[in-house]
Amino acid sequence: MGTPATLTQVPFLVTLYLSTLSWNVLRPGERRFIGLNNYGTVLTDARLRAALINTVVLTASAVIVSLILGLASRSCSTGSSSAGPWSAPC
18-48: per-residue pLDDT in tens? Predict the structure, then answer.
């Protein structure tokens, strides 16, 4: 069995290598090195930018809602007003 570093870093390095190739899985014999062109394509794609913005908004919303619900739940479960400004009548 490999070390944890080997188990995580080898797949990461293989992924970096594969990202520098122009390769179609349906045609495995046609691999050619294109360097960082794939990264340029990804960074200039409007659909990716929209997907990243949606991901950030969704993640931030989920964290904020979870924080509010957690604080409300905590203040209701303690039964005292020692929760500070977050305490609310339940």
Answer: 999 998 888 878 889 999 998 998 889 999 9
Distance CA 63, CA 65 (A): 6
Cβ(39)–Cβ(19) below 8 Å: yes
Both structure tokens of 71: 């604080």
Residue 18's alpha-carbon distances to 6, 14, 33, 56, in angstroms, are: 18, 6, 9, 27
The beta strand positions in the chain, using DSSP E, are 21-24, 27-33
Contact 3, 21 (CB under 8 A): no
CA 59 from centre of chain: 9
Domain borders along the chain are 4-78
Q: For residue 36, which phi and psi values (nearest 5 degrees)?
A: -95, 10
Q: Which single residue is written with the structure tokens 């050619």?
A: 32
59-89, pLDDT tens digit by residue?
Answer: 999 999 999 998 888 776 665 555 556 555 5
